[in-house]
Design brief:
Length: 281
């Protein structure tokens, strides 16, 4: 059974679904649309390149689409469809089922409140660190954390960062001699390179990111430029470079400190448990 919100039977297809579009990814054969529903996050595959422009318009909007359960690939969590309809504000008002998913799909989280929690945490450690984060406020509040996987909606990077910090601080309580300043900086800035990774309108990977080698490399540049006077700069850069865990998973190096190991674990839990961790907000 596909865990999408089912509205009613329709035509030759088995079901009609309602979902919220977080991002898209262009493919030369068509387009991949990342959607969220009340129960699941998945990717819709449309093998029709002519739908690309329509898909771009759908980002940050609700859509309805017809589908057959037989077109669902459980291994890759993809569902092949032929097209979709974008719901206007008037359509939403006329759609009784939309209220069932609006609070679980489209993120109605107070972004300002979450960002302030990050700032307050840095102020406790060093007010100068908070000033560095503050200059990235608008980008942080609008950027995605990924294109097709976790937190892949506008504002997803901020939510992911908050989750990583919360998890990391909880894990740190289990160990002695954890440098909380280093851990906090590593958790909050581990994905700072993603500010340049995704187009803010569509969520597609930018040419800048492809040119400069990804967010782990650009993240190190951000950190080096802003934390040159920090006494553990090398260890902070190591957290950025190693937070994917292993080179097989995209890490540039291995974790060199307990703080780097903790940030990796926290990042892994957040990126693989988005739906389970929503309550942390």
């Amino acid at each position: 059974m596909i865990a999408l919100h089912e509205t009613h039977k329709k035509g030759k297809y088995d079901l009609e679904a309602l979902a919220y579009v977080g991002a898209i990814k262009e493919d030369k054969r068509g387009v991949i649309v990342s959607v969220m529903s009340a129960d699941v996050q998945m990717n819709l595959v449309i093998w029709n390149a002519r739908m690309t422009d329509e898909a771009k318009k759908a980002v940050d909007h609700y859509i309805t689409f017809c589908y057959s359960p037989q077109k669902y690939n459980s291994k890759y969590r993809t569902l092949t469809i032929s097209d979709f309809d974008i719901l206007s504000d008037e359509d939403i008002k006329k759609t009784p089922d939309v209220n069932k998913i609006v609070t679980t799909v489209k993120p109605y989280v107070d972004d300002t409140a979450i960002f302030k929690k990050l700032l307050d945490r840095l102020v406790e450690i060093n007010p100068n660190h908070a000033k560095i984060l503050e200059q990235f406020q608008e980008d942080f509040k609008t950027q995605r954390a990924s294109t097709m996987f976790h937190h892949n909606y506008r504002g997803g990077l901020l939510r992911h960062t908050f989750q990583v910090l919360t998890i990391a601080e909880s894990i740190a309580k289990l160990y002695k001699d954890v440098d909380m300043e280093l851990l906090t900086l590593g958790a909050i800035f581990h994905d700072i390179g993603k500010l340049d990774t995704y187009d803010k309108e569509t969520g597609a990977t930018t040419d800048y990111d492809r040119m400069y080698g990804g967010h782990l490399i650009t993240g190190q540049k951000y950190v080096y430029a802003n934390f040159r006077e920090y006494k553990r700069l090398d260890d902070l850069i190591n957290i950025i470079a190693s937070h994917h865990g292993s080179k097989d998973w995209g890490a540039l190096t291995t974790a060199a400190t307990i703080e780097a190991h903790i940030v990796f674990i926290a990042d892994y839990l957040s990126s693989h448990g988005d739906t389970l961790l929503k309550e942390m907000m």
